[in-house]
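Two proteins follow. First one:
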Amino acid sequence: MKIIFIISFVLIFVKLNAQDIDIRIREVYGNECEQIFKNDPERLIKLNDLLQNRVSIIISPNSFKDKYPKLSSVGLLNKHNPNLKRDAFFDASTFNVLKYDLNFFSNASFFYRIDNTDYLIVIKSQ
């Protein structure tokens, strides 16, 4: 009974707050946003958790022997929004990590170098 209540609450919460979907999520899912999360509210919860709790950008000096994959080597997630483009330059205030096909849902933490910068994207494990 408790599980049914929680699921019902989540469904109502997602429905009532569809207009409040994070702008970064809207950018990636485009016009399909409401339909996707109406059918899969758990996905919205996971994406919000990812953005709020598991992704960070840190400063770590870039070196010649850098071992981290570069952001430019990763694909773009433009299935739902074919107009999605890579960032021409990095700006922490507008950067949308969801645009890139990074390993978000792993049991290990991952690091990616933002090309030609001292910034690393850190994705904490689930």
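Second one, unrelated to the first:
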Amino acid sequence: MDGKLIGLVRHTVVDRYGIELWDSLARPCDSEEMPSDALAAWVGRETVPALRETYPSLFDRHADLASFVQGLGDDLPAVRSTVATSAASVSLRYGVAPDGSILLRIEAECSLCALIQGLIAGAAIHYDEPVLIGELKSPRRGDNVCVLNIEIGTEAEETGAPDLEVAVV
């Protein structure tokens, strides 16, 4: 499935919001025109219903959010995907922490990390499961990768975080 998911997301974003928004999501971390993480996450979350409608198999083959997140690595392997005039390399790997939460390592442009967080948030809505996403590492803070701690079944208010579909801590 070489880059299938990112290609579907790109198609959906361009179709609904225009190529300019997609281009802005692929800018490097140090770009002055970098979109906010909130915008990128919103695009990811809002893209899920259209992806689900157009490509139901992406969601139907997973029984729950954990399976979806763990399957992201199969849908989006370390391949080159064309993003406007530049290319973005995206690699996802997951592991399970001792407490049962999922650790997701994302090697990608900054805004694609937030976009993937949004996709997970949208999938959580689809699977009707609460999720708390903690960002352990981020290129915006100078790290060379994103590392997310994904706690499925944890409500934001349980941790004192804002009441959002996804609380990034």
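SUMMARY FIELD: Residues 77-87, 157-169 have pLDDT under 50 and may be disordered. The chain is about 40% helix and 20% strand.
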